Each structure stands twice: as structure tokens, then as C-alpha cells.
Amino acid sequence: METQPIIAIKNLWKSFGKNKVLRGINLTVDKGESLVILGRSGSGKSVTIECLVGLLEADKGKLEVFGTDITKLDYKALNRIRLRIGFLFQGGALYDSMSVRENLAFTLKHHTAHLSEIEIEKQILEALDSVGLQEAIDKMPSELSGGMVKRIGLARTLIIKPEIILYDEPTAGLDTITAKEISELILSVQKKYKTTSLIITHDINCAKMTGNRIMIIKDGVIHAQGSYDELMNSPDDWVRSFFV
Questions:
Q1: Do the strands 60-65 and 213-218 form a parallel or antiparallel pair, or are they unpaired?
Q2: Could you give the CA distance from residue 156 to residue 212 in angstroms, rounded to a whole number?
Q3: Which candidate, 99, 94, 98, 63, places its Cα nearest to that of 81?
Q4: pLDDT of residue 1
Q5: Which of 2, 10, 7, 9 is CA-nearest to residue 65?
Q6: Which of 8, 20, 33, 117 has its CA 20 to 30 A from that of 14?
Q7: DSSP labels for 117-135?
Q8: What is the largest CA-CA distance in the chain?
């Protein structure tokens, strides 16, 4: 018996004024899968996942998450779906005025009411341990390197124990070594927490390391999909250009 995809996007369209960014995106992600979406800057990669969590309203199409079309949900029902999804933003998106501990506690309290202070501290330490940064618990965001900010951002995502994690350019702005560490961390998180991952990137090394499957967006549609090796050896010159 076939299981239902945990994410299913059907004929997704999104325009900004006369700029048609998405022109009928179709994709599915199975439970436990790690799907990478590649594309040039401005191709609509980030717009796709912003529509997926209701940060942007789709012009047309179905966006099914956990078998529910989120385009038909009211705000309260959409939030119930969002509670099961972690979103790692491109910049880490930490609150500058809060310490690492306070950033994680704020997120946890927002998602899970009535936790004791002991339980909150325990979950903060567990999340920081998962990203190898327990020692940064009392630091302020301004004291962290770019790689550390990404790790803390991921810890803040993990603390709500999401079933799906959406990564928006997780290695952007990082040096090669740190970018590789973040890609390895994505893999270890998926293994430890058995999450489903949707990774938006233009970093081909990140795609190679993290993706079970890769899709490439061009002109607002999925232009090609397959494994890293299949796409690297594609007869399509444009597809192969990503792997040079």
C-alpha cells in the first residue's frame, strides 16, 4: 500500500505584480525524505517554501501538508499545522536582544505552554547539544560567528520537535569548511530526529551531501529532477551547468 506524501504541491502559481515567479510547480516529499530544490537566484525557490507555510498566499494551486490543503485553512488551523514544521531562515533570525538561552526558551514557551523551568532548561540543553553548542548558552547573537548563528537557529528549530524542517539557503554566506559542517549537521539531525527535510539551496556541495533527491527550478517550473549523479550526467547542458 502506497503511503501519502507528507508534502504535495500541485500546480502552484505565484506572481508579484507582472512578475510570474512560480508557473505551476509540482512536487512531493515522502516521510523521512530529504529533497533539495536547486535554482538560480530569483527562480522562486524560497517563494515555494514561503507559500508552503502560509507566509505568502499562493495565487493558484494546492499545498498539501500532512494530507491537508493549507490554502483552505483558517488562521487557527494553519497554526496547528505550523506547530509541526520547523523553518530555518537564511539569516538564522535570532532575536538580537536575547541570549541564546532566552531565544530558545522564548520559542519553546510559545509552542508548548505549562512547561516547568527545569523542563525548559533540559530541552534547551538537549537542543544545543544536538548542534554541538552547549557552551554558547549565555552568549548574545552578536558574539556568535555566522556558522554558530546557523547552528543556534537550527537548535531553536529542533526544540519544538518538528516533523518537517524547511531549510532556506542553510549554507549561504559561510566559508567552505563551515558550510560542510552545516550540511553534515543537517544529515545528523535528520537521522537523530527522523525528520523530513526540504532544503532550498544554490550550494551544489550542500545538495550533494544532503539530498536523497534533487529538483531544479527554471522559469517557474520544475525543469529536472533525479539523484545527484543523474543530474550531473544529464543530456541537458543547462542542468549540467549546476555541477561544473
A1: unpaired
A2: 25
A3: 63
A4: 46
A5: 7
A6: 33
A7: HHHHHHHHHHHHHHTT-GG
A8: 58
pTM for this model (two decimals): 0.90
Amino acid, single-letter form, for residue 102: E
Inter-axis angle of helices 176-193 and 117-130, to 10 degrees?
130
pLDDT digits (tens, 9 = 90+) for 60-93: 999 999 999 999 999 999 989 998 999 887 766 7
Three cell numbers written together for 76: 487557527
Whether the CB-CB separation of 147 and 178 falls below 8 Å is answered with: yes
Spell out the residues 6+ positions from residue 76 whose beta carbon is closer than 8 angstroms to its own: none
| Residues 84 and 160: beta-carbon distance below 8 Å | no
* Residue 238 DSSP one-character state: H
Cβ burial 3-24 (10 Å sphere, 16+ → b, else e) = eebbbbbeebbbeeeeeebbee
Nearest residue to 208 via CA among 243, 178, 169, 160: 243
Min mean pLDDT across 20-29, 86-95, 232-241 is at: 86-95
Q: Where are the beta strands (DSSP E) in the chain?
A: 7-16, 19-29, 34-38, 60-65, 68-69, 85-88, 164-168, 196-200, 213-218, 221-226
Cα 174 to the center of its chain, rounded Å: 17
Is the sign of the CA dihedral 56, 84, 116, 188 positive or negative?
negative
Distance CA 189, CA 32 (A): 11
